[in-house]
Structures are given as structure tokens and as C-alpha cells.
Amino acid sequence: MNTKNISDSVIRRLPRYYRFLGDLQAGGMTRISSRELSERMGLTASQIRQDLNCFGGFGQQGYGYNIQLLQHEIEHILGIDKPQNAILIGVGNLGRAIAQHINFESRGFSLIGIFDQRESLVGQMVRNLPIRNITSLDEFCRENLPTAAILCIPKEAAEVLAKQMVPLGIRGFWNFSHYDLSLNYPGVIVENMHFGDSLMTLSYRLHNSE
Amino acid sequence: MNTKNISDSVIRRLPRYYRFLGDLQAGGMTRISSRELSERMGLTASQIRQDLNCFGGFGQQGYGYNIQLLQHEIEHILGIDKPQNAILIGVGNLGRAIAQHINFESRGFSLIGIFDQRESLVGQMVRNLPIRNITSLDEFCRENLPTAAILCIPKEAAEVLAKQMVPLGIRGFWNFSHYDLSLNYPGVIVENMHFGDSLMTLSYRLHNSE
DNA sequence: TAGATTGTTAATCGATTAACAATC
DNA sequence: TAGATTGTTAATCGATTAACAATC
User: Fold this and answer.
1) Which of A107, B1, B126, B166 could form an S-S bond across to B199 if both were Cys, CB 3.0 to 4.6 Å?
2) B101 chain-A contacts, CB cut-off 8 A
């Protein structure tokens, strides 16, 4: 789709720009220079201009950037304006919290189905959606064509299930299992959320600060 | 503490090495070469050897690495063998899930206290710990000396509370609020877990793959 | 000993920063 | 117009990869 190859470092800064611009706008500001934004975000002005110019010239010499316009551009770059249908697999503590806690709509997704293998949970409502039996996954996907899946299941199940879901049209996985889900299918994306890894880096840094 | 300055890239790969080595050991393997590990992890052998040699020579020429020994070394490097006391603030959906779902002990921490501002929750048990009133935070910290805090509260509260907690001895924050907690105190560490940012990068990559 | 694989130095690559002409 | 600030090219810095002597 995109011809230019944008580095991962740049992509991972985009949501942060988006958040800061939202806060600035909420604070009543209408314009900002790369220098001022850089001071607020703890980056260099150069980096901000370089990052943004991967996607286009959104500023104006002598003026800076219009905050609302720039935020809107980044929203578009991230694809948040075209939400994709997502399903969530696994309604344990974490799955339930994710379903109830995350504002999917404002981050480019629409949660349309929730699944678990435990019969006892089936039918329960979570955030206005009924928990469905995992056995109905195939049928649901064929009918509703979700493109993303949120995996809140143990690593063994994650590996097996993910491979079954690719042929059903799931192209993006948001993976919460303690496992590096890596699927060698072209065009299939995995975003790993490793709580444990994050906590261990905090441990390292706590032990090695100062 | 550590004199050498280890780059963030290296630190963030350590937990992943740790996980892979654990899996290999569980699979009954006792030794591995950097080449084979590199193939399994999708890295280069060079990088693995460079990373490990930031901390010491854990391998043996002609042999490779002893898996158990190497995992043990990384455990020590990460500080997992010296758990730090942690408290959790905010027992909403997410906080509750974190408290119940995360294996703190095996990641360098020990959860010793849980707090919320909602009177109605106080006294409830979560993972063998009573939810305490946030008003008792000072006293609890003076008595039990936790060094890390898990913030599962809205961003406004996160900012205010974190600043109050630094003087109480909290030096590490695991931050789940949609906010870049940044505390300009020397030696205070913040590890941000931004669900929204992660989800937005997934959105970007889904829209721009192939 | 011969083969294998590390630890480490050197080369390459990519990302960040600096500089400045273009221009609002 | 003068001042400000971008977009963009060039310089720097750091991280990754390659190469190989050391050595088990």
C-alpha cells in the first residue's frame, strides 16, 4: 500500500504525537512549532520534522503546525479513521479487562465478537457483546469478516488458534500471551504485548539506576 | 550501580532471551550455540554474542552456551533473583486483572499492597491481599517500604499520585494510564504500558502491509 | 589434534541531529 | 519587508552485522 518504507522507530512515535496533539488541543492551543513540541515531548525538533516529513509537509514556514490539522493527518496516517473489525479470544481476567477497558473505536478498531472455550461463560454479556463459544468462530468469521484478533489466551492455545485464524481472514493479532507469536504468512501482522518483558526491564532498570 | 552503559535496545532484548532459554530448557535442551539461538529467535548470531558480552563471557568456544547457566545469569542481570516490593494503585477492571494475572514473583517483584480511593472496594480481597484505602498509602509505605508502584488509574490521578509517592520511597513506576508519566527525579524509573499506542501501531501496520 | 564456536575488533548500516536555504 | 520556522540535505552518532583470531 505505502511505497516508502517507514522505519519502525517512526511508526512507534506516531501514536505519541497523536496523544500529545490531542492534549494540546484539549488545552485550547491551535498552533505549535516543532521546537515547542519537542520541548514538551522530550525529543529534538529535528526529529519531529523528519518524522512528519515521511508522510508529507504538514507545517508552514514561519508559522509551525496547526494542531487540529496535524492531529487529523496523523489519525489518517494511522488508519484510525477506517476502523477494522476485531474479535477477542479468551475472557479470563485479562481478556475481560481488555474488552471493558480499551476504547477500541478511538484507536482504529471495532470490537464485534468475544469468544471463549469455557461453556460456562458462553452467553454472558461483556460490554454489550455476548461471549460466544469458540466452536462458532469459523462461522462468525465467514459471516462478519473480522480482520484483527486480540489473543488473551495461554501461549499453547495462542499458537494453535492463530494459525487457524489466518485462513479465516484475520491479518492482525494483538497478542497478550507470554509467547512471541510469529506467523510466517505474508501480510500478517503481530503486535506483542508482553507484560512480563516490560516488568523485567523495569526490574533491571531499578537495580541499575544511579 | 552498573558502570557500563547498556543501551536500551540490549536491555529490552534480555527478557526475550530469558523466555526463550526457559522454553528451551523446558524442552529438555542443555546447550545451544549463538547460531542456533539466532535462528529460533529471528536475530543474528552476532547480535546475541554482542548482547551477552555486555555483561560477561557466558559461553565457551567450540561448545556454545549452557542453557541453564545462561538463563541463570540473565535472571541475575535482570535482578529477578532479588524481588522488590511493589504496590498496585487502582482496582478497576484493569488493575484487578493485572493483580490476578501477572506472576510478579517470577519477574522480579513481590506485590504487597493494593489501594483504591473507592470506599466500597476497601476490604475486598484480591489475590490474597485486602484492598486498602488510598488514604492509608503514606502509612503503609513508611511501614513496608515498597520500591515500585503499578499505576492502574486515570492519567490525572497518575500524575498527581506519582509525585506524592516519590518522597515515600517509590523509585519505579509501571504506568498503565494513557499518559507519558515522566518524573524528573534522579533515579526514578518509569515503564509505560500504553495499550492505545500499541493498538494504533497495529492499525497502521494493518493498513500499510503488502 | 581438528572442528566448532566464542569473544572481540572492524565495517556497515540506519537513525538521529545539525545546519541552512526556502518560504510563509 | 523582517522574523520565524519549515522542509531537506549533510554530518554525526550509535547499533547491527561481518570477520576472524583465540581457544575450548
Assistant:
1) A107
2) 92-94, 195
